[in-house]
From TrEMBL:
One of its GO terms (molecular function) is pyridoxal phosphate binding. Residues 16-240 form the Alanine racemase N-terminal domain. PROSITE patterns: UPF0001. Belongs to the pyridoxal phosphate-binding protein YggS/PROSC family. The lineage of its organism: Eukaryota, Viridiplantae, Chlorophyta, core chlorophytes, Chlorophyceae. It comes from the Eukaryota. This is Pyridoxal phosphate homeostasis protein. Pyridoxal 5'-phosphate (PLP)-binding protein, which may be involved in intracellular homeostatic regulation of pyridoxal 5'-phosphate (PLP), the active form of vitamin B6.
Length: 254
């Protein structure tokens, strides 16, 4: 079966979001980030023409390639692992970068803060989220443990005046699957961060810190559990085809 047209798929997601919010009596707005990694500029343009303005990319080079080819009123969210040596390029080449959702160290926060400070093309603080990960004892490369969220959030608020702490983000488990406990835990971390900042006189009341959680497979549940920012890719743009890193093996001989 062919994929649905992007505009139709987008409308479906928006109406499912609305239903999920109504079901759970959620009245706060929920932002849809259309995750366009691996998809061509034409696909993003189609979503843009259907009214979508917020797009998420995982790879720096892809965002640098696409942003200049698309309208300037798009709000770009960076949602992948950001290497320190790419920070300057992201900040300076994407003036409409709205948010980096994946800050997972004080070092990265400091780099971003410096880059925004040094770049004269940007006059507003850059919104960032602390990326949380549930390692459950497994090895995980990116994201901070729940116990470290408060310290990283506090560091951003106290030491990074060019950044605005927008909230907390998770992709769920290291393998990108989510469980309800992940959503509950992220909300608990958000509350702990909010209480800490309030205690220091630095708040941001609790309700203003966002929760970025929920993807194609679980965004309705995430909304029911308090998400304010969901990141949906394949349900809007169709399944992703990754380019193989090496040539495919030759087919078996008949
Ligand atoms: C790819 C990706 C998504 C979207 O995943 P889908 O399952 O295609 O909706 C969301 N968040 C992050 C961080 C991603 O890398």
């Amino acid at each position: 079966m062919a994929d649905k047209p992007i505009a139709t798929a987008l409308q479906d997601v928006l109406s499912r979001m609305k239903q999920a919010a109504e079901k759970a009596n959620r009245t706060h707005p929920v932002r849809l980030v259309a995750v366009s990694k691996t998809k061509p500029v034409e696909a993003l343009q189609e979503a843009y023409e259907a009214g979508q303005r917020v797009f998420g990319e995982n790879y720096v080079q892809e965002m640098l390639d696409k942003a200049p080819a698309l309208p300037a009123d798009i709000q770009w969210h960076f949602i992948g692992h950001l290497q320190s040596n790419k920070v300057k390029a992201v900040v300076e080449s994407v003036p409409n970068l709205a948010m980096v959702e994946t800050v997972d160290s004080t070092k990265l926060a400091d780099k971003l803060n410096k880059a925004v400070e040094a770049y004269s093309g940007r006059t507003t603080p850059l919104a960032v989220m602390v990326q949380w990960v549930n390692t459950s004892g497994e090895e995980s490369k990116y994201g901070v443990e729940p116990s470290e969220c408060v310290a990283l959030a506090r560091h951003i608020v106290q030491n990074c005046p060019k950044l605005r702490l927008a909230g907390l983000m998770t992709i769920g488990m290291p393998d990108y699957s989510s469980r309800p406990e992940n959503f509950t835990c992220l909300a608990a971390c958000r509350d702990a961060v909010a209480a800490d900042l309030l205690g220091l006189g630095l708040a941001d009341p609790a309700h203003s810190l966002e929760l970025s959680m929920g993807m194609s497979g679980d965004f309705e549940q995430a909304i029911e559990m308090g998400a304010t920012n969901i990141r949906v890719g394949s349900t809007i743009f169709g399944a992703r085809e990754y380019k193989p890193k090496s040539p495919p093996a030759s087919p078996p001989k008949q």
